[in-house]
Amino acid sequence: MCVLLSTYGSRGDVEPIMGLAVRLRELGAEVRVCAPPDFAEQFDRVGVPMVALGPSARELVYGGKPLTPSDAPRVAADLAGQNISLIALWSQISNTTTRSTKHNEG
């Protein structure tokens, strides 16, 4: 089974997904997680492949020009667009893997 998990935010948003990913992997699933680039090192430490999604969460909060409520639709649309692209890519990869496995078993 192939599983793609996606989250965006701070540790409180990302670490529960990390725990779920580790457990799913222990149960035999092939897992990938899309998360802010800030968490690449933590995912690497637990052995779960991560795909960077969006800008650094820290940078959004603390860097550059402060975000305003009027920025929310743009930021949400950017993240949603990246998520859709990653889901489409993962779907292609998992379908290829599934077909290849079935062919080899058949």
Account of the protein in words:
The protein has four helices and three strands; from the N terminus they run E-H-E-H-E-H-H. The chain has 106 residues and is of the alpha/beta class. It has a single domain (2-105), classed as Glycogen Phosphorylase B (Rossmann fold), CATH 3.40.50. The protein has a three-stranded parallel β-sheet with strand order 1-2-3, with helices on both faces. The longest helix is centred in the last third of the chain and has 34 residues, at 72-105. The radius of gyration is 16 Å and the shape is globular. The two termini are 18 Å apart. Mean pLDDT is 82; it is low at 98-104.
Short précis:
Helix content is 59%, strand content 13%. It has 106 residues and is α/β, with parallel strands linked by helices.
Key features?
single chain; 4 helices; 59% helix; Rossmann fold; three-stranded parallel beta sheet; 106 residues; alpha/beta
Low-pLDDT stretches are 98-104
What count of helical segments does DSSP give? 4
- In the CATH scheme, the class would be Alpha Beta
Please tally the β strands and state the result: 3
The CATH architecture can be given as: 3-Layer(aba) Sandwich
How many structural units, i.e. domains? 1
Would you tell me the overall average pLDDT? 82
Q: Which geometry do the CA atoms define?
A: globular
